[in-house]
Design brief:
12 helices
């Protein structure tokens, strides 16, 4: 007669192929840009294995991605809250995992967009160790560098009130942020994945704000060679084109003055 522990072991073994199949199906749906369907598959995995690391961090990232598409704040908040829950569960499952740390940092950054000044500043302070660990653990992953670049730039551009509040109420500014590091991080993201048009736009915007106009134009010219696949990419491509036209006009004006 089989013991209870043996029965559980057999059941777990039998379910492994199903979990593998579900994960494979989820990855395929992601490659087809079917994010909601992919999220549902990862959630099926978690119904079978609540601590599955890949399903947890992927569910967090997909929840953020889907949430950003909603203009309704209630729906955005619901997805971002779910993202945070999945991300922290992934972190508990593997605290040194680059993906888990990225998922936590990403969820915090997006939750910050729904908060007032105090909550927003607190989120950026809290996400610092996660985004730094994400890059340290997964330096080969462009997304970690993009998020690090955004963090550096946002914190380095706190206004006076945000800086004072951080110093007096939050125990100090997040350390080490700089626009130069933002450029370096976003350049690295672009180098690792030059076909991601969002990376082009982020890098060009930082170059523009740093008054490195020629560098911004070069990146934007490259962006127009990329073929948008999703609706989001089409919108980013339009923004890149508009920014390129704006910077080109400004450059012509400077040349005429000279």
């Amino acid at each position: 007669m089989l013991m209870v522990s043996e029965l559980e072991s057999i059941a777990a073994t039998l379910s492994l192929p199903d979990i593998g199949k579900l994960l494979a199906e989820a990855r395929l749906l992601q490659r087809k840009y079917l994010d909601s369907e992919a999220l549902a598959k990862y959630e099926q995995v978690l119904d079978e294995d609540a601590k599955n690391y890949e399903a947890l961090w992927q569910a967090a990232v997909l929840s953020v991605r889907i949430g950003t598409r909603y203009t309704d704040e209630t729906r955005r908040s619901a997805y971002f809250t779910s993202a945070g829950q999945y991300a922290y569960r992934a972190f508990v499952a593997k605290s040194d995992g680059g993906e888990a740390n990225y998922a936590v940092a990403l969820s915090l950054a997006n939750q910050a967009t729904l908060l007032r000044a105090r909550g927003r500043l607190l989120m950026y302070k809290e996400m610092q160790p996660y985004v730094f660990r994400a890059v340290a653990r997964r330096p080969d992953w462009a997304d970690t560098w993009q998020l690090l670049g955004r963090w550096h730039y946002r914190v380095d551009h706190y206004n006076v009130l945000e800086r004072v509040y951080s110093e007096l109420i939050l125990g100090g500014m997040p350390g080490g942020a700089s626009s130069t590091k933002a450029v370096d991080a976003l350049k690295r993201a672009h180098e690792l994945d030059p076909k991601r048009i969002q990376f082009c736009y982020d890098l060009a915007r930082v170059y523009q704000n740093q008054r490195q106009f020629d560098e911004a134009i070069t990146v934007l010219v490259d962006s127009q060679k990329l073929e948008p696949v999703t609706g989001e990419e089409l919108e980013v491509s339009r923004r890149c084109r508009n920014l390129l036209q704006q910077l080109a006009r400004q450059k012509r004006g400077r040349n005429e003055v000279e």
